[in-house]
Amino acid sequence: MTQRVFGITGWKNSGKTTLTEKLVAEFSRRGLKVSTVKHAHDSFDIDKEGTDSFRHRTAGASEVAIVSSNRWALMHEMRGEKEPALKEILACLSPCDLVLVEGFKKDRHEKIECRRADARDHSPLSAPSIVAIASDHPLKNEARPVFALDDVPTIADFIQRRTGLSPRS
User: Fold this and answer.
1) Which end of the chain is more exposed for a tag (fewer CB within 10 A), N or C?
2) How many other CB atoms are there within 10 angstroms of residue 2's CB atom?
3) What distance in Å separates the CA atoms of residue 103 and residue 101, rounded to the nearest whole number?
4) Sign of the CA dihedral 106, 107, 109, 111?
């Protein structure tokens, strides 16, 4: 499988996660295998205090894999290492039709920028890799394609065309 990558970016509270979630559902409905990568700015936990995996990690394990019959997860504790580049994370993913990347504003992959009227910041992002805008309000003098933020099927069609991803039957 050829790994196709497309990003969803924007300022805090601009609708990135909601759009990403809806796009995953839309592409899955279309029969495509989709993976996601989400950038987080703060420290985060995916396990809870008191669980075995939490205890392993806090004891000093560099990586902790949790495996069950329903899912598996691998946590890598940075322990002073620098944050990995997106390409390093993409290399860790299993084969899929499309990887949707939320965040990673400065990386070079093509992206759609989300804009909401009630977002904290309204200034447009200036990354040249932004190829379209998804907005909940009208935009004037925008040279790139502009989609309604909630028009998920049309945005998905655009992403499929941009990535060269063929629909499955």
Assistant:
1) C
2) 9
3) 6
4) negative
Sequence-distant (≥ 6) Cβ neighbours of residue 92 within 8 angstroms:
none
Smallest Cα–Cα separation from 106: which of 25, 7, 19?
Answer: 7
Query: To 10 degrees, the CA torsion angle through 116, 122, 127, 129?
Result: 10
The whole-angstrom separation of Cα 23 and Cα 97 is 13
Picking from 104, 96, 100, the residue whose alpha carbon sits closest to that of residue 39 is 104
pTM: 0.90
What residue type is 149 in one-letter code? L
Secondary structure of residue 28 in the 3-state scheme: helix
Element (H, E) at 113: strand 111-115
In eight-state DSSP terms, residue 94 is P
Cβ of 133: how many Cβ atoms within 10 Å?
A: 20
pLDDT band at 168 (very low <50, low <70, confident <90, very high): low
Q: For the segment 128-151, what is each residue's pLDDT rounded down to a tens digit?
A: 899 999 999 999 889 999 999 999
Neighbour tally for 100: CB within 10 Å: 22
73-98: buried (b, 16+ CB within 10 Å) or exposed (e) per residue?
eebeeeeeeeeeebeebbeeeeebbb
Give the angle 29-86-112 at the CA atoms, nearest 5°: 50
